[in-house]
Design a protein that fits this description.
- This is DUF4145 domain-containing protein.
- It comes from Streptomyces jeddahensis.
- InterPro entries: DUF4145 (IPR025285).
- By secondary structure, the chain is α+β, with helices and mostly antiparallel strands.
- It has 2 domains: 80 residues; 115 residues, Four Helix Bundle (Hemerythrin (Met), subunit A).
- Strands 1-2-3-4-5 form a 5-stranded antiparallel sheet.
- Helix 3 crosses helix 6 and helix 5 runs antiparallel to helix 6.
- The radius of gyration is 24 Å and the shape is flat.
- The structure holds zinc ion (ZN).
- Zinc ion (ZN) binds next to loops.
Length: 227
Protein backbone atom coordinates (compact mmCIF):
# COMPACT_ATOMS: atom_id res chain seq x y z
CA UNK A 1 0.00 0.00 0.00
CA UNK A 2 1.32 3.43 -0.91
CA UNK A 3 0.77 4.81 2.59
CA UNK A 4 3.55 5.85 4.92
CA UNK A 5 4.67 8.48 7.38
CA UNK A 6 5.75 11.22 4.97
CA UNK A 7 9.47 12.00 5.35
CA UNK A 8 8.71 15.69 4.67
CA UNK A 9 5.64 16.55 6.78
CA UNK A 10 5.74 13.66 9.29
CA UNK A 11 2.05 12.77 8.75
CA UNK A 12 0.78 9.26 8.17
CA UNK A 13 -0.66 9.73 4.72
CA UNK A 14 -1.44 8.13 1.39
CA UNK A 15 1.10 8.74 -1.38
CA UNK A 16 -0.11 9.15 -4.97
CA UNK A 17 2.04 7.69 -7.74
CA UNK A 18 3.03 10.38 -10.24
CA UNK A 19 4.68 9.50 -13.54
CA UNK A 20 6.37 6.30 -14.58
CA UNK A 21 7.96 3.41 -12.74
CA UNK A 22 11.68 3.00 -13.46
CA UNK A 23 13.83 -0.09 -13.20
CA UNK A 24 17.11 0.76 -11.45
CA UNK A 25 20.08 -0.60 -13.48
CA UNK A 26 21.76 -3.41 -11.58
CA UNK A 27 25.18 -1.76 -11.69
CA UNK A 28 23.85 1.25 -9.72
CA UNK A 29 22.37 -0.77 -6.89
CA UNK A 30 23.93 -0.68 -3.45
CA UNK A 31 24.05 -3.57 -1.00
CA UNK A 32 24.20 -7.35 -1.41
CA UNK A 33 20.78 -7.86 -3.07
CA UNK A 34 20.77 -7.48 -6.85
CA UNK A 35 18.18 -7.26 -9.59
CA UNK A 36 14.51 -6.38 -10.07
CA UNK A 37 14.64 -3.06 -8.20
CA UNK A 38 12.01 -0.51 -9.22
CA UNK A 39 11.48 3.11 -8.20
CA UNK A 40 8.83 5.79 -8.74
CA UNK A 41 7.95 9.29 -7.55
CA UNK A 42 4.95 9.69 -5.24
CA UNK A 43 3.26 12.88 -4.06
CA UNK A 44 2.14 13.28 -0.43
CA UNK A 45 -1.68 13.49 -0.30
CA UNK A 46 -1.60 15.98 2.58
CA UNK A 47 -2.69 19.29 0.99
CA UNK A 48 -0.35 21.35 3.13
CA UNK A 49 2.63 19.18 2.05
CA UNK A 50 2.20 17.72 -1.47
CA UNK A 51 5.96 17.12 -1.72
CA UNK A 52 7.57 14.26 -3.65
CA UNK A 53 9.14 11.14 -2.21
CA UNK A 54 10.74 8.19 -3.99
CA UNK A 55 9.30 4.74 -3.30
CA UNK A 56 11.43 1.66 -4.09
CA UNK A 57 10.66 -2.05 -4.10
CA UNK A 58 11.98 -5.33 -5.45
CA UNK A 59 9.37 -6.82 -7.74
CA UNK A 60 9.37 -10.18 -9.44
CA UNK A 61 7.45 -10.86 -12.63
CA UNK A 62 7.05 -14.04 -14.64
CA UNK A 63 7.50 -12.19 -17.93
CA UNK A 64 8.54 -8.67 -18.89
CA UNK A 65 6.01 -6.32 -17.21
CA UNK A 66 4.16 -3.51 -19.00
CA UNK A 67 4.03 -0.01 -17.47
CA UNK A 68 0.43 -0.44 -16.25
CA UNK A 69 1.32 -3.67 -14.47
CA UNK A 70 4.37 -1.99 -12.92
CA UNK A 71 2.26 0.94 -11.67
CA UNK A 72 -0.36 -1.36 -10.19
CA UNK A 73 2.23 -3.47 -8.38
CA UNK A 74 4.07 -0.38 -7.06
CA UNK A 75 0.84 0.74 -5.38
CA UNK A 76 0.24 -2.66 -3.76
CA UNK A 77 3.61 -3.60 -2.28
CA UNK A 78 5.58 -2.45 0.76
CA UNK A 79 7.94 0.32 -0.38
CA UNK A 80 11.07 1.81 1.15
CA UNK A 81 10.95 5.59 1.07
CA UNK A 82 13.36 8.45 0.46
CA UNK A 83 13.30 10.75 2.37
CA UNK A 84 12.65 8.52 5.37
CA UNK A 85 10.52 9.72 8.22
CA UNK A 86 12.77 10.33 11.24
CA UNK A 87 11.24 10.21 14.71
CA UNK A 88 12.57 12.88 17.11
CA UNK A 89 10.31 12.88 20.16
CA UNK A 90 10.64 15.67 22.74
CA UNK A 91 11.34 15.02 26.43
CA UNK A 92 10.18 18.33 27.95
CA UNK A 93 10.81 17.59 31.65
CA UNK A 94 14.26 16.06 31.10
CA UNK A 95 17.42 18.23 31.33
CA UNK A 96 18.27 19.61 27.85
CA UNK A 97 21.49 17.65 27.18
CA UNK A 98 19.97 14.34 28.24
CA UNK A 99 16.72 15.06 26.36
CA UNK A 100 18.50 15.84 23.08
CA UNK A 101 20.59 12.64 23.31
CA UNK A 102 17.40 10.63 24.00
CA UNK A 103 15.71 12.24 21.00
CA UNK A 104 18.73 11.34 18.83
CA UNK A 105 18.56 7.73 20.05
CA UNK A 106 15.01 7.58 18.65
CA UNK A 107 16.17 9.21 15.40
CA UNK A 108 18.82 6.47 15.02
CA UNK A 109 16.25 3.75 15.74
CA UNK A 110 13.88 5.12 13.09
CA UNK A 111 16.56 4.86 10.37
CA UNK A 112 17.62 1.34 11.52
CA UNK A 113 20.94 2.64 12.97
CA UNK A 114 20.60 0.18 15.85
CA UNK A 115 24.10 0.37 17.35
CA UNK A 116 23.97 4.16 17.29
CA UNK A 117 20.58 4.05 19.02
CA UNK A 118 21.87 1.73 21.76
CA UNK A 119 25.11 3.69 22.25
CA UNK A 120 23.07 6.88 22.78
CA UNK A 121 20.55 5.12 25.06
CA UNK A 122 23.48 3.98 27.19
CA UNK A 123 24.86 7.56 27.33
CA UNK A 124 21.41 8.82 28.34
CA UNK A 125 21.11 6.37 31.25
CA UNK A 126 24.71 7.12 32.35
CA UNK A 127 23.96 10.86 32.32
CA UNK A 128 20.70 10.33 34.22
CA UNK A 129 22.57 8.41 36.96
CA UNK A 130 25.30 11.08 37.06
CA UNK A 131 22.65 13.81 37.35
CA UNK A 132 21.63 12.08 40.61
CA UNK A 133 25.18 11.75 41.94
CA UNK A 134 25.61 8.09 40.91
CA UNK A 135 29.02 7.99 39.22
CA UNK A 136 30.70 4.76 40.32
CA UNK A 137 30.56 1.24 38.94
CA UNK A 138 29.19 -0.33 35.76
CA UNK A 139 26.03 0.89 34.09
CA UNK A 140 24.23 -2.21 35.41
CA UNK A 141 25.17 -1.29 38.98
CA UNK A 142 24.11 2.33 38.37
CA UNK A 143 20.69 1.09 37.24
CA UNK A 144 20.53 -1.01 40.44
CA UNK A 145 21.33 2.08 42.49
CA UNK A 146 18.62 4.11 40.72
CA UNK A 147 16.29 1.31 41.88
CA UNK A 148 17.62 1.23 45.45
CA UNK A 149 17.04 4.99 45.73
CA UNK A 150 13.46 4.55 44.46
CA UNK A 151 14.13 6.74 41.42
CA UNK A 152 12.94 3.90 39.19
CA UNK A 153 10.45 1.13 39.94
CA UNK A 154 11.62 -2.36 40.87
CA UNK A 155 9.90 -3.61 37.70
CA UNK A 156 12.05 -1.30 35.56
CA UNK A 157 15.24 -2.39 37.34
CA UNK A 158 14.29 -6.01 36.60
CA UNK A 159 13.50 -5.11 32.99
CA UNK A 160 17.09 -3.85 32.57
CA UNK A 161 18.30 -7.15 34.04
CA UNK A 162 16.02 -9.14 31.74
CA UNK A 163 17.34 -7.37 28.62
CA UNK A 164 20.87 -8.19 29.80
CA UNK A 165 19.96 -11.86 30.31
CA UNK A 166 18.62 -11.86 26.74
CA UNK A 167 22.20 -11.38 25.52
CA UNK A 168 22.12 -7.78 24.39
CA UNK A 169 22.51 -5.47 27.27
CA UNK A 170 22.37 -1.76 27.52
CA UNK A 171 25.62 -1.89 29.49
CA UNK A 172 27.69 -4.01 27.10
CA UNK A 173 31.16 -2.74 26.27
CA UNK A 174 31.70 -4.20 22.79
CA UNK A 175 28.93 -2.80 20.62
CA UNK A 176 31.02 -2.96 17.45
CA UNK A 177 31.56 -6.73 17.84
CA UNK A 178 27.95 -7.58 18.57
CA UNK A 179 25.06 -8.18 16.23
CA UNK A 180 22.23 -5.84 17.20
CA UNK A 181 18.83 -7.23 16.21
CA UNK A 182 16.09 -4.58 15.79
CA UNK A 183 13.96 -6.04 18.60
CA UNK A 184 16.88 -5.76 21.08
CA UNK A 185 17.55 -2.15 20.09
CA UNK A 186 13.81 -1.38 20.45
CA UNK A 187 13.73 -3.01 23.90
CA UNK A 188 16.74 -0.97 25.04
CA UNK A 189 15.28 2.30 23.73
CA UNK A 190 12.01 1.37 25.49
CA UNK A 191 13.96 0.89 28.73
CA UNK A 192 15.62 4.30 28.27
CA UNK A 193 12.17 5.89 27.77
CA UNK A 194 10.85 4.19 30.91
CA UNK A 195 13.82 5.36 33.01
CA UNK A 196 13.36 8.97 31.80
CA UNK A 197 9.63 8.73 32.47
CA UNK A 198 10.16 7.57 36.06
CA UNK A 199 13.16 9.72 36.97
CA UNK A 200 12.04 13.03 35.41
CA UNK A 201 8.68 13.12 33.67
CA UNK A 202 6.38 11.49 36.24
CA UNK A 203 7.76 13.55 39.20
CA UNK A 204 7.51 16.77 37.11
CA UNK A 205 3.89 15.98 36.26
CA UNK A 206 3.11 15.31 39.93
CA UNK A 207 4.71 18.65 40.95
CA UNK A 208 2.66 20.53 38.32
CA UNK A 209 -0.57 18.96 39.65
CA UNK A 210 0.44 19.77 43.24
CA UNK A 211 1.26 23.38 42.33
CA UNK A 212 -2.06 23.91 40.55
CA UNK A 213 -3.96 22.35 43.50
CA UNK A 214 -2.16 24.64 45.97
CA UNK A 215 -2.88 27.70 43.80
CA UNK A 216 -6.55 26.71 43.63
CA UNK A 217 -6.69 26.29 47.41
CA UNK A 218 -5.07 29.71 47.92
CA UNK A 219 -7.59 31.34 45.54
CA UNK A 220 -10.46 29.66 47.34
CA UNK A 221 -9.11 30.74 50.76
CA UNK A 222 -8.69 34.35 49.51
CA UNK A 223 -12.27 34.37 48.16
CA UNK A 224 -13.59 32.96 51.46
CA UNK A 225 -11.72 35.69 53.40
CA UNK A 226 -13.24 38.43 51.14
CA UNK A 227 -16.76 37.07 51.57
ZN1 LIG B 1 3.91 15.08 3.39
Amino acid sequence: MASTTCGWCGRLTHMTLVGEVFEIPESYQLGPERGDLYAAAFRCDSETCARLSIGQARLHFAGYPGMQELKTRMQQVHLTWTPQSVSRPAFPDVPDQIASAASEAHACLSIQAYRGAVALARAVVEATAKDHGIVRGSLASKINELGERNLIREFTRQLAHEIREGGNEIAHGDLADEPMPPEDAEAIIGLMDEILQEVYQAPAKMLRLKKSREEREQRNAAQAAEA
